[in-house]
UniProtKB/TrEMBL annotation, chain A:
<keyword id="KW-0963">Cytoplasm</keyword>
<dbReference type="GO" id="GO:0005737">
    <property type="term" value="C:cytoplasm"/>
</dbReference>
<comment type="function">
    <text>Part of the phosphoribosylformylglycinamidine synthase complex involved in the purines biosynthetic pathway. Catalyzes the ATP-dependent conversion of formylglycinamide ribonucleotide (FGAR) and glutamine to yield formylglycinamidine ribonucleotide (FGAM) and glutamate. The FGAM synthase complex is composed of three subunits. PurQ produces an ammonia molecule by converting glutamine to glutamate. PurL transfers the ammonia molecule to FGAR to form FGAM in an ATP-dependent manner.</text>
</comment>
<keyword id="KW-0436">Ligase</keyword>
<keyword id="KW-0547">Nucleotide-binding</keyword>
<dbReference type="GO" id="GO:0006189">
    <property type="term" value="P:'de novo' IMP biosynthetic process"/>
</dbReference>
<comment type="similarity">
    <text>Belongs to the PurS family.</text>
</comment>
<keyword id="KW-0067">ATP-binding</keyword>
<dbReference type="Pfam" id="PF02700">
    <property type="entry name" value="PurS"/>
</dbReference>
<protein>
    <recommendedName>
        <fullName>Phosphoribosylformylglycinamidine synthase subunit PurS</fullName>
        <ecNumber>6.3.5.3</ecNumber>
    </recommendedName>
</protein>
<keyword id="KW-0658">Purine biosynthesis</keyword>
<dbReference type="InterPro" id="IPR036604">
    <property type="entry name" value="PurS-like_sf"/>
</dbReference>
<dbReference type="GO" id="GO:0005524">
    <property type="term" value="F:ATP binding"/>
</dbReference>
<comment type="subunit">
    <text>Part of the FGAM synthase complex composed of 1 PurL, 1 PurQ and 2 PurS subunits.</text>
</comment>
<dbReference type="GO" id="GO:0004642">
    <property type="term" value="F:phosphoribosylformylglycinamidine synthase activity"/>
</dbReference>
<dbReference type="InterPro" id="IPR003850">
    <property type="entry name" value="PurS"/>
</dbReference>
<comment type="pathway">
    <text>Purine metabolism; IMP biosynthesis via de novo pathway; 5-amino-1-(5-phospho-D-ribosyl)imidazole from N(2)-formyl-N(1)-(5-phospho-D-ribosyl)glycinamide: step 1/2.</text>
</comment>
Length: 84, 227
């Protein structure tokens, strides 16, 4: 069994209005050193072992549903879990 | 002409769409639930606004995989007119029937007000009843209508004259003031403003009615054999 952590973020080229609002807010809280904030999504998937290649399955899931690759990028980390 | 109004869990403009077709346009219309497999009996498909599946993940992302969408793709391939309004537009983008994607409004606010649109192309099956360059007033109601596509896609949209409506005073930050686009083939239109909410002077305006009249007119010209 695997625990897969998926991070979905807006592409660098796409303006992030939420991130921009948070950046402004941090500036008004007197953190001028913060130059940018990008807001994304974090998802945890539990995936059972199967005959299929795990990376292939995760990439399919991400590109089909979890991320819209027109405006978003994704990356993921895999942890193998030992069933109790 | 017989229309289908697709109803997803969370659709909320389906009744307005039904009313526009049945009472204002005087054509046949039926509600079609999202798990329907075939749309063969319908001549035109309408995807209404709302918050399908609670907008979970992304607007339209879950609805795009509902069973009826396979039939919508099939209808699109068959050349039937397909109109997606607001959430319906977002679903068409997610389904890849139209290019691009939606971002949150630049202001981060939900915007609900009448806006002025410019008719950029009146040679589509959805816009022949308008004049080229005409200004029309149609209400918007959305939190994510900030249209985006890459430069290559934008160039193609312009090249093929696929931008049908633009905002006169951009309310959401949409690229190039885009309010509505059509596919290359010319039978799938997606737009953020709600023409079904502007079909009677009682509602504050009737500029949306011409869009539906255009669809019916072109369908009749193509399908009704003149005696």
């Amino acid at each position: 069994m695997f625990k897969v952590k998926v991070y979905v973020t807006l592409r660098e080229s796409v303006l992030d209005p939420q991130g921009k609002a948070v950046t402004h807010s941090l500036h008004s809280l007197n953190y001028p050193e913060v130059s940018d904030v990008r807001i994304g999504k974090y998802m945890e998937l539990t995936i059972e072992k199967s005959e299929r290649d795990l990376d292939e399955v995760i990439n399919e899931i991400c590109s089909k549903l979890l991320a819209n690759t027109v405006i978003e990028d994704y990356r993921y980390e895999v942890e193998e879990c030992v069933p109790q | 002409m017989k229309f289908a109004v697709i109803v997803f869990p969370g659709s909320n403009c389906d009744v307005d769409m039904y009313h526009a077709i049945k009472d204002e346009l005087g054509e046949q219309v039926e509600y079609v639930w999202h798990d329907t497999e075939s749309l063969d009996e319908f001549d035109g498909i309408l995807l209404p606004g709302g918050f399908s599946y609670g907008d979970y993940l992304r607007t339209g992302a879950i609805a795009r995989f509902s069973k009826v969408m396979q039939a919508v793709v099939k209808a699109a391939e068959a050349g039937k007119p397909i109109l997606g309004v607001c959430n319906g537009f977002q679903i068409l983008l997610e389904a890849g029937l139209l290019p691009g994607a939606m971002r949150r409004n630049e202001s981060l606010s939900f915007i609900c007000k009448p806006v002025e649109l410019k008719v950029e192309n009146n040679q589509t099956i959805f816009s022949t009843a308008y004049s080229l360059g005409e200004t029309i007033s149609i209400p918007v109601a959305h939190g994510e209508g900030n249209y985006y596509c890459d430069e290559e896609t934008l160039a193609a949209l312009k090249e093929n004259n696929q931008i049908v409506f633009t905002y006169q005073d951009n309310p959401n930050g949409s690229l190039e003031d885009i309010a509505g686009i059509i596919n290359e083939k010319g039978n799938v239109l997606g737009m953020m403003p709600h023409p079904e909410r502007a079909v009677d002077e009682l509602l504050g305006g009737a500029d949306g009615l011409k869009l539906f009249q255009s669809i019916v007119r072109s369908w009749r010209e193509a399908n009704v054999v003149k005696a």
